[in-house]
Amino acid sequence: MTNIIKRKRINQIITFLKSLKIGSKRFSEIIKTQNISVIQEFNQALIHSSDNKIINYEKLEFFGDAVLRLAASNFIEKKFPQMSVGERSELRAQIVSDEWLIKLGKKISIEKLIIKGPKALGDENSKNTIIGEATEALIGAIYKCFNSIQEVNLWLDDIWEEDSEMFLKAPYKFKSKTVLQEWCQSKGLDLPIYKIIEISKINGDPKRFSCDIFIEGLKESSAFGKSHKQAETNAARDLIEKFINIGKI
């Protein structure tokens, strides 16, 4: 990897790392001394392959995936020691999901730091995917600085605590299709049928796809989404909320 990082870029990365507010003396020391080898790791975590085929975040993203799962497992062990293995797996799946990573990436405004090539810059469809991938690479870089998950947990535990509370209060909001399927099975009904219609050709249109849900031949719910998956999820979530309100669930 080249050792040349422009001073402006170093300052941007330092400012970004400060904004994460990781309560660690070791992390603060890295920021204070501006250790160039560490800055290089974080710089690499913020470069998309469309800009540089050799120096980019892909390896750190792969590494960060394992780190994230380990840190989440550590958090769950400390916070919810009474949980069964199945419950732990279910909760972890939510707090390390692609959607969660994208949400975290947007929260820390990571997109401002990501260097992209012309092709990726003009691709709105890949925008969220790149945010999630770079966030995962960032987590990998934090681990590599210390060869420890301590700083990762110091950063993410408070966020996970809040998100876990939301999930445990209303799990159907996060896995609505699964909950609806399980409800149908518990009632001896056929599985729900999802029918998708493309309404718009505009990428990113929140009403691009319409989804109707049929149970036993009856249309029970309709919703929109900017993708097939989102439309199905929204329709399933609306139906579960409807069933809760009328006492079916």
Description:
This protein is mostly helical and 249 residues long. The protein folds into 2 domains: 7-168, Ribonuclease iii, N-terminal Endonuclease Domain, Chain A (Orthogonal Bundle), CATH 1.10.1520.10; 176-245, 2-Layer Sandwich (Double Stranded RNA Binding Domain). 59% of the residues lie in helices and 8% in strands. It is built from 11 helices and 3 strands; from the N terminus they run H-H-H-H-H-H-H-H-H-H-E-E-E-H. It has helices at residues 7-19, 25-33, 36-44, 58-79, 85-95, 98-107, 118-121, 127-146, 150-169, 176-186, 228-245, and strands at residues 193-198, 209-215, 218-225. The protein has a 3-stranded antiparallel β-sheet with strand order 1-2-3, covered by helices on one side. A hairpin with a 2-residue loop joins strand 2 (209-215) and strand 3 (218-225). The protein is globular. The termini are far apart. The model has no long low-confidence stretch (mean pLDDT 92).
Question: Short description, anyone?
Answer:
The protein has 11 helices and 3 strands. The protein is mainly α and 249 residues long.
Which terms summarize this structure?
single chain; 249 residues; mainly alpha; Ribonuclease iii, N-terminal Endonuclease Domain, Chain A; Double Stranded RNA Binding Domain; 2 domains; three-stranded antiparallel sheet; 11 helices; 59% helix; 8% strand; globular
Task: Tally the beta strands.
Answer: 3
The amount of helix comes to 55-70%
Secondary-structure content class:
mainly alpha
**SSE pattern:** HHHHHHHHHHEEEH
Number of helical regions: 11
- SS strand fraction: 5-15%
Calculate Rg over CA atoms.
21 Å
CATH H-tier superfamily of the largest domain:
Ribonuclease III domain
Q: From the 3D structure, determine the CATH topology of the largest domain.
A: Ribonuclease iii, N-terminal Endonuclease Domain, Chain A
Number of domains: 2
Strand order of the largest sheet: 1-2-3
* Known CATH architecture of the largest domain: Orthogonal Bundle
